[in-house]
Predict the 3D structure of the following.
Amino acid sequence: MARKKVIIDPITRIEGHLRITCIVEDGKVTEAWNTATLFRGFEIFMKGRDPRDAWHFSSRICGVCPTPHAWNSVRATEEAFGIDKMDDNTRLIRNMMEATQVGYDHILWFYILNAFDFVNVPNALNAKPTLPSLKAVQERVLAVVKSGQLGPFANMYWDHPGYKLPAELDLELTAHYLQSIDVQQAANDAAAFMGGKFPMIMNYAPGGITQLPSIDEILYYQGRMREVKDFVDNVMVPDLLAIAPYYIDLAQTGKGVGNYLTWGLLDEASQDPYDRLFPRGAIFDGKLQVEKVDPNETRMYTKYSWFGDDVGGGKHPLDVGQEPIEFTKLDPLDNEGPVEGKYDWTQAVRYGKEDRPMEVGPLAQMLVAYLAGREDTKKVVDDTLAAIGAAGKPEVLMSDLGRIAARVLKAKVNADNALRWSDELLANIGAGKTKVFESRPVPATGEGKGGWDAPRGALCHYMRIKDGKIDTYAAVPPSNWNLSPRDDKGVRGPVEEALVGQSVVDPDRPLEILRVVHSFDP
Amino acid sequence: MSTTEISIFPRLTRREFLKYCGTLAALIGAGEAAIPDIAAALEKLAKRPAVVWSLFQECLGCSVSLLQSRTPDVANLILRQISLEYHEAVMAAAGDQAHKRFEDMVESGDFYYVVEGAIATKIPEAITIHGISAMEHAKETYKKAKATIAIGSCATFGGIQAAAPNPTGAKGLAAFLREDAGVANPVVVNISRCPGNAEDMLAALTYILVHGKPPELDAVGRPIFLYGHLIHDNCERRGHFDAGEFVEVFGDEASQERWCLYKVGCKGPQTYAPCPKTRWNGHVSWCVHNGPCIGCAEPEFWDKLAPFYERAQNVQIPGIGGISTTKIGMALGAATAVGLGAHLIGQTATGRLGKGGPPEPEEAPRGGRS
Amino acid sequence: MREHETKPFKLGISKHETREEHPLMAVVTHWIHLISMIVLIATGSFIHSPFYQGSMILNKTVHTLFAFILIATGVVRMYWAFFGKGSAPCGGRAKIRDYKFFLPQKENRGKLVPMTKYYLFLRETHPRTFKYNPLQKTAYVSLIVFITIQIVTGFSLLTETAQFFLPLTYLLGGTAMVRSIHYLTTWGFIFITIIHIYLALTETIHELPLMFLWREVHVMERWYGLKRDELEE
């Protein structure tokens, strides 16, 4: 029996630091562990600070998706301050900021982080393009290859049989890779003009928005977001449909735990989390049925994390913290045996009484929105299912390919609505409604939570205030859900579960493992 | 138009190339006279300068910031100007193949080193890559590199994870090299801010390529040509500051007029950074256009410039934490008032008021009091 | 006042010669410093947190101007302290160099505890000390220390000189720290000044005229209305 332990460290093209360890037997993964190899201690150093500053700190949890972290944090703070509802302009501006985030992030992920798993860049040189623009791209690739300095393209398994696209598509996707850089810039420019800069926007504050955008800024926003929308409609969605047939077998792999969770994102006027553009909800055990969920049902476990065993113990995030730290050891690279004992800086997160591991991300968001009957989502999903010959079967989305498709389609729904919110904001300003901020003193005590998804999945921040200072702060980002280690009962996390059973052609060049991991946008 | 192609800029015409040199000259503050020199120096570089980019305790924000670079644009930058040989978030290869690339590059010694993220020194395993801690990575790579640039608040000054109580012992690269790696006088060009600005980083890199040595650095290792002025000195709202026109609370009428944010906690007057000049995201905007500065270019700004929405900063007192200077002043004021009040009562009671107590009976040699 | 029982001024003053406890130089700089201080504190408070609708640039200019006035008179005062004739302590006309009053003096040895006790009402009589008692001395010396701190941190904050002081700025803990030091030291000033005024008014108000009319004979004549002849022993 051919048994091999595969350690991929570092997993590249992700945010953060990740190691994946797999046991591959007879060409199939039989056991998997994911290890976050980075720890910073946010929940420790945020204690005792001014609650109004919390969002500046917690935006720095993720430099790729700081905006939803900011939303969660200011909302948690506002709830603790007793502001139950945002004023309408604040809601719209925060939606607009979020729309740039979603737009940029999914483009970035699809082309810059994920594409190399499917697009063979050197193979683009074999194409025989007729379009001058594609010829130019080919020349650029050729110049890089000729120079002998391959830069980011060096050492990839370009000869892996897993690459299936014809040379023409490889070239076109490479061209779009370069184009996507400009388009993600367009989305971020829109955010920056209203928010000061991206990453790390500056215009949120507990109470609302620090600066009502001027008309020219809103028009600029619309212009840039229209570029994003054009790209998503005319390049990204067609690219998805073009490559899907070549990788249709990915619709069978990476099923994962079958539980999907989203706190929802992008508020409508009601500000009801179940009435969002992507509503709150969960799907359990792969059943096509949406359940209501509560962020306070989140439970933490630390038996396999580098914290004291009883730090977690199924407690609410606010009662957990990150102390005491109990680093044991990182599995040595030459250890042939299984990973033993504690192995992760991430704490295991489970949902509800049954302690279910939950998959989060655009797939969860799109499935819930689809099943909850959101019109725009339903339309794009149905169209896409029909295009790939799976009309009326949304369950095929519960796979690696589904995760990829969900991101692209979500980017479309998002871009379609960004302009709507900015129009509403213009209408509000036209009607003389310019309120964007409500000043409240820092209360002596209070408690609040967010609950608004990041592009990569469910995100919730929790805050407890005592004596006017942060008493405890907890952030449960999507990577905590997807990249959960085993919980106290030994149940695998969603990525670990998705990896088990995956076939691997060549354990020395584990392209298939990369694909599964990247499909979660870790 | 001449179509002479320069090896590292294969698609640029001569005129475009010289225009680009002009932009660089302006960025590094060299003036037009230096354009031919810069052009000559760049032309001499037959190979694109190789860059090894390490990610330590970071959030990837600086890399995302690199992706927002406009002058030069990212595609040109990565494919034509530099050769980004190792960057975990951008490179195609992963795992062993990626690490091999890293080892080969370090072995060759022919690279410029960019560090993003802090280095954990108390818990070295809080950040490992390929099973190797950032401490080991940084120490070895720094020694081999032709020049080293730290980008972002974390790599320069430890950043957010170094905020008190700094659970992982996070340090900026220069501090780590000096204090933990035994490098006497580390030369690290610090491009601070959160996130680091790619155009600043590229300006510093170009300066190094052109002059063969790092630019002149300030007391905390930042290039003076970029970080020589307070944000406040060049702020677009400065006129309102001088006129005494201040936003009192966000969203008020003054804020719609974009008056000065001083009173709502703007840290521009305490922050050395080129933000008003270089701005962000293709120069479309910058923080103070939309909200108060939090001083992200300054060392330890998380502790020293907080709270961010208050005029008066906290003073860090070891063991107690941050205390507002206003509170200290008020406490001292109250103590004095109470003390003097009590003393006044005492003086009245003892009959000293207005004349003081009787002098000591015995005759001092040359006694007296004022 | 006139009936003050201790009559401290019968100390051998002749018609022709006059004793100067606080010579003109000390009196003039003292009041210039006080005025500068008040202006600096007022404008400084505005700069710290603008509390009325006024011009920042005016406040900053005035602040800087009076800082320079304070420094200039401070330099003159320091020169005089070391090289001037000095002043006469109680009990004679002989002048002692001014700086010596701010250093420990043998006449004051062992008087710190009695002085403290006196202020805390733990003893009835005022200990006999030299011109300035130990606590007074400490307060005045700390004012000199404070003013040095203010000058250094002030220049670190002044746009034109900030770059030069940058290494010091970061040695002290960064830009915000320097600002906080400048601000907190001001409070130190305010408190010492308040205590100084309080004691001057409650303990030794009869000596106050000396701070305006630097010659005792002037005080006698113009404040207490005594004739010069009556002063002769």
Chain A has a mean pLDDT of 94. Residues 67 and 98 of chain A are 6 Å apart (CA to CA). DSSP finds 13 helices and 13 strands in chain A. The longest strand of chain A covers residues 28-36.
